[in-house]
Amino acid sequence: MAHSISAQYANVDFSPIQALTDGEVITHSPVRDIRLASGKVLALITLDNGRDHTRPNTLGPATLTALGETLDGLTARAAAGEIQAVGITGKQYILAAGADLSDISKVGSRDDARLIAQLGHKVLGKLGELGVPSFAFVNGLALGGGLEIALNSDYRTVDASSAAIALPEVFLGIIPGWGGAYLLPNLIGIENALEVVISNPLKQNRMLKPQQAFDLGIVDAIFPAANYLENSLAWADAVLGGKKVERKNEPGKIERLTKWPIAIKMARGMLESKIGTVPKSPYAALELLDKARSGTKAEGFAREDEALADLVTGDQFAASMYAFDLVQKRAKRPVGAPDKALAKKVTKVGIIGAGLMASQFALLFVRKLQVPVLITDLDQARVDKGVAYIHEQIGTLESKGRLDADSANKLRALVTGTTDKSLYADCDFVIEAVFEEVGVKQQVFGEIEKIIAEDAILATNTSSLSVEEIGAKLQHPERLVGFHFFNPVAVMPLIEIVKTPTTSEAALSTAFVVAKNLGKNAVLTADAPGFVVNRLLAKVMGEAARAVYEGTPIIDVEKAFAPLGLPMGPFQLIDLVGWKVAAHVQDTMADAFPERFYANENFHALAELDAVIEKDKGGRVTGWTKQAEKLLKPAVGSTPASADTILRRVQDGLASEIKLMLDDGVVPEVEDIDLCLILGAGWPFIDGGASPYLDREGASERAFGGEFHTPQIRGIENR
Ligand SMILES: NC(=O)c1ccc[n+]([C@@H]2O[C@H](COP(=O)([O-])OP(=O)(O)OC[C@H]3O[C@@H](n4cnc5c(N)ncnc54)[C@H](O)[C@@H]3O)[C@@H](O)[C@H]2O)c1
After folding, report:
1. How far, in Å, from the CA of 468 to the mean position of ligand 1?
2. In this structure, are 559 and 540 located in the same domain?
3. Which of 286, 470, 593, 680 gives 533 a disulfide partner, CB atoms 3.0 to 4.6 angstroms apart?
4. Are residues 555 and 466 in the same domain?
5. Domain with 601 in it: what CATH number?
6. Within 13 Å of residue 466, how many CA atoms lie on the same side as its CB?
7. C-alpha to C-alpha distance for 63 and 69, rounded to whole angstroms
8. Most ligand 1 atoms within 8 A of CB, residue of 434, 484, 534, 588 to mutate
9. Domain containing 431 — which CATH number?
10. What span, in angstroms and rounded, lies between the C-alpha atoms of 40 and 38?
11. From 374, 383, 424, 463, mutation site for ligand 1 pocket: most ligand atoms within 8 A of C-beta
12. Are 13 and 157 members of one domain?
């Protein structure tokens, strides 16, 4: 037992972290002895914190200690021959949601952080050293430490209807540090493990479905929800009786020697080009996965202890905990949202415009609100195209089994395309997504106001125009509110709700309630050019255009932005948004703040856009490099900017713009800006949104001689 996990942690003193627990100890006794058909006895532990499913089991120091004691008791019983196996499962729908993050974020010193990792290893490691086989019955949610319970066990089954399964640690700025980084690649091979440990968390924290977990080899057997435990116990009995368990993706010698180092190298290259080198957790995870190729479990666990100790006390984790708090708490209780009771009940939605945005959110309205939705455009052909898109999307959902035929037909029946605006008379919520021009928007609202009821709410999806100006010609401007979706609508969780000086409480309240019912997070902003996200993205795009104008090749400009960690480079983003919309936003920003936005000067080539766009059937120009090269021409005789210069300019530009936005009251606090950037621009969660990053990079200091956050939020105090 020289390399046993129990021996490794036998003499560690855990008393410094015992005080961290908030006292919510998961009760998991009495352990139930279950006599299997063969006559063997399996002792079953059920993790259950006694709360409803909204409060999942989490693993804090006290819970772990108690679980460790239970496992010690079972080891003794196994040695005495009283039990032949141990099983571990969770309360209904939940195995465990992982480490108790409120505990971890309270950790002050590196030594204490290491103790958290060591305690998890010591306790979960026991599952592999009981003297009898251990079985994890993954009956539901298994995230982080929850999944590591299963990985430390000898065998695993999963309930086919389980909720998410994942190792999300990298997304939170840490690494799977209770065995995951060592055990997973040794179970399912390096390429699969890279997917689960690094790629999925970086893809907006993607989770695995039970079937995927089974296909990857993370679990050995999958059973339907009905009789899941009975089937799992019978399966365990068969395994105890000698049934062979096939581990199809378990790496062999050849994979370890050849595929493993190549996969790591490729993953590193991919990471560097996708997220730059600033975020630490993906690289720390990569290092651990690399080393997991050889050496003992005890060595692997010791490496995880050190990596976790580094990351938990680093500034990136502090920033991601700040982001976690924003998304978990602030996003759920939007600042400035009026009383829900003031909201108007929405029974029929009118949508004006059937283009890129309108057709996407029309689908969301029918799916989430399940009310009739009318959609219109300039002519029947455009209306038909929008409706066809919605029908096609419903069809896709149906073919993927996410909607049954009945519901799909019901949804289709709720969508009506029309050029007859009189049908809008009984709509209580009308939203426009026509061209980004004040005159056009004023005209459509003028027309619709004559038709709808006096108290119907009007909303505009404008990206950057003044909502007040859009409503200037309305008889009841108080009913107008900005309701700014992000593209792609199905994916982006944010809606910026814009209040003008006249917007009524009823209109505002309705907007918040509708946003919530659409399953989106809403943030209230003032009626300032570009609101929050587009103002800052325009800054990014403007700096990119400026660098090209100075003669920097587009590909170098894209690369210079990589350290920001945004989901894509600035030109790729312009291509996604559509060059026409992007040009409008830049123009609006440059008109509003000519001294700080470069649109007029350097985006002048965009004037050529209309012609290019008209040629493109889908309304969007594809092949961003080619288009960008064509449209953005360097000025004669200028000097290309270096990557450092470009990055520093954009960092300083963002820092000063954010400061100005706060001074002008666009939103009350910098937290709202970070929330918008995380949810609306995909700003990396592990950077905590923009402001902690700009503080850390010294940009805040350079831009306005201060900082947005206290050292605590930036994590500096912990170093
Ligand atoms: N593209 C984006 O990523 C994005 C994101 C958020 C907000 N927006 C905003 O949404 C709005 C629409 O943008 P889009 O990208 O969907 O543009 P789009 O060109 O795809 O769609 C606009 C549609 O409005 C129709 N239209 C124009 N005038 C009309 C009128 N008088 N009556 C009825 N229909 C009319 C057009 O025929 C077209 O189908 C703009 O205000 C834009 O700023 C766009």
Report:
1. 19
2. yes
3. 680
4. no
5. 1.10.1040.50
6. 11
7. 10
8. 434
9. 3.40.50.720
10. 6
11. 463
12. yes
Atom of ligand 1 nearest to the CA of 354: 39
Q: Is residue 331 part of a domain?
A: no
Q: Is the dihedral of CA 711, 714, 716, 719 positive or negative?
A: positive
Q: How far is the CA of 25 from the centre of ligand 1 (A)?
A: 53
Q: Is the pLDDT of residue 622 over 60?
A: no
Q: pLDDT tens digits for 452-492? A: 999 999 999 999 899 999 999 999 999 999 999 999 999 89
Q: How far does the centroid of ligand 1 lie from the alpha carbon of residue 617, in Å? A: 15
Q: E strand or H helix at 499, and its extent?
A: strand 494-499
Same structural domain, 291 and 370: no
For residue 96, what are its two tokens? 């465990």
Among the listed ranges 252-261, 289-298, 476-485, 702-711, which one has the minimum average pLDDT value? Answer: 702-711
The answer to the question of residue 701 being in a domain is no
Q: Ligand 1 centroid to 485 CA: how many Å?
A: 12
In a domain, 107, yes or no: yes
Residues with CB under 6 A from ligand 1: 352-358, 376-378, 382, 433-436, 440, 444, 461-463, 485, 487, 577-578, 581, 619
Question: In this structure, what token pair is assigned to residue 365?
Answer: 């309205």
The rounded Å distance from CA 433 to ligand 1 centre is 4
Rounded Cα gap, residues 434 and 377, in angstroms = 8
> Containing domain of residue 466, as a range?
340-526
**What residue owns the CA closest to ligand 1's atom 31?**
444
The residue out of 526, 557, 574 marking a domain boundary is 526
Minimum CA distance residue for ligand 1 atom 7: 463
pLDDT in tens, 532-570: 999 999 999 889 888 888 888 888 998 899 888 888 888
Pairing state of beta strands 480-484 and 457-460?
parallel
Q: Classify residue 705: in a domain, yes or no.
A: no
pLDDT of 553: 87
Rounded CA separation 149/503 (Å): 52
| pLDDT digit string, tens, across residues 314-340 | 888 888 889 988 988 899 999 999 999
Is residue 457 located within the same domain as residue 587?
Answer: no
One domain, residues 353 and 293: no
CATH number, domain of 27, equals 3.90.226.10
| Alpha carbon of 367 to ligand 1 centroid (Å) | 21
Measure the CA angle with vertex 29, ends 23 and 35; round to 5°: 160
Last-in-domain residue among 297, 313, 329 = 313
**How many distinct structural domains can be found in the chain?**
3
Is 90 exceeded by the pLDDT of residue 710? no
